[in-house]
Amino acid sequence: MSAEEYQYIENPMSVSRREFLSISGALIALTALPAAVVRRMAVKRNDYIRARTAGLYKDDTNAKVRVSHANQGVSRLYQDFLGNPLSEVSEELLHTRYIDRSRAMA
Amino acid sequence: MSTHAAILKHPLRVRMFHYFLVLSFIPLAATGVALFLKPFSEAAMNLLMRVHVIAGMVLTLDAAAFFVLALDRVVLFTKRAFTFGLNDVKWFAVLGGYPQKFLLRKKVPVPPMGKYNSGQKLFGACILVGGILLIGTGLSLWLFPHVIPHALAKAFGDIHLIAGLFLTLFLLVHIFLGIYMFDDFKAMFLHGRIPYEEAAEVAPLWVQGEIVALTDRS
Fold first, then answer.
1. Where are chain A's structural domains?
2. Which residues of B touch A33 (CB under 8 A)?
3. What is the ipTM of this complex?
4. Is this structure's pTM higher than 0.80?
């Protein structure tokens, strides 16, 4: 049998026009509808993030102390206990390192 | 009728789709199982994740290209995969005669099938639904995980895992039976043709109802 030797093929008309339109329509809907739902949920979530961002900016605007180095409590903490930023004590107590917790989360 | 007569079962565009499917799905299944079990070091798992993403992109592009360029084949496949009848019930009752053939070396009567037997139809339906779920959830979790609500991301992860494991198990059966039906295996990987006589024996409804001679069309 040579490379192009065949005498029979599938009848390309074995799907009617009605079947073609209904099946292709169903497939497109099956893929497009969930995509639209996910997009809507993502947009709604972004609305929440935007509202929260606006709230944080508003809190910041109203706050008397807006930066950490102007915070008297933080200044006193460094003065009385931590020493200075990046000191051995502050490094030990305030800094963290990456730990893979994926197994524990699962 | 010549004994050398052949039917073009898998046209070139179907074979091209299948080549890329093989190239992408086998690495996806292997890396997916490894990502689930996490047996290697963190660096190795990162590398596997990259391979998983690249293979996933190949699969997505392959599926999208086939959907656009061969919509008629997708429709035909969907119609066949989701058409079930009494013959399929009878086929599942004897499991296509395969267990009897493999375990008892006995041939039992099997109801006449179309292009795909009932097991292949079930596999096709699972591939279609599972494939869409895998691509949709995988692409969402890779492209924009930060905008998906946490609960939805968790659900996407679970769906991706279950669909992936399910199709990976199906893949093992598919590979075994694909190689067992060696003429069909050669048709899919090499030339697309199967002998007319064999098709008439294993897929009589397909040959009777859907096959036309090339001369009939001219």
1. 17-63, 69-98
2. none
3. 0.74
4. no
